[in-house]
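Narrative of activities, Objective 1.

The group set out to show that a structural description can be obtained from nothing but a protein's sequence at a throughput compatible with the screening campaign. Below is one input-output pair from the validation batch, recorded exactly as produced.
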Amino acid sequence: MSSKGTGTGTGKGGKKAAKAGPFKGGKKFSKSKRADIQFPVSRIGRYLKKGRFSKRIGQVAPVFLASVLEYVTAELLELAGNAAKDHKKTRINPRHITLAIKNDDEFNLMTQNITIASGGVLPSIQPVLLPKSRGKKKGATESQEY
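Output recorded for this entry:
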C-alpha cells in the first residue's frame, strides 16, 4: 500500500500540521507585511525579474533589497530632517537633502557623481579669499572683527 494520502507524515502527500506563527493562518498577508517593512517587496521582486539582472531571483532577494532601501531612505530622511530643523523649517526641501548628503561621509561617497535639482552647494569660502590677518600689536584692539 502506498504512503501517499495516508497522512503518516513520511511522504509529500497527506495533511500538513498547522504551522505556528502570526502569518500562517487562513488570512493572506503581503510580503511587506510579513517582513515588517514599508517598502513594496513584491514590486521590487517584479522589477528584479523584469530587469533581467539574473536568470533566477531567490525568494529572499527582494525582501533584503527592500529592507536595505528602506534603511538608507530612513537614514537620509533623518539627516535631512535635522538639516531642516537647523534652518528652522518644518518641511524638507532639496536643499536640506543636499546638505545632509554632502555633510555625511558615506552618503557623499555613494552619491558623489549625482546632482540634485535645486540643491545648491555647500557653503564654503576659499581661504585665499578671506582677509589677511595682520600681526596684532600688544594692547591694541581692532575696530572690526572678521
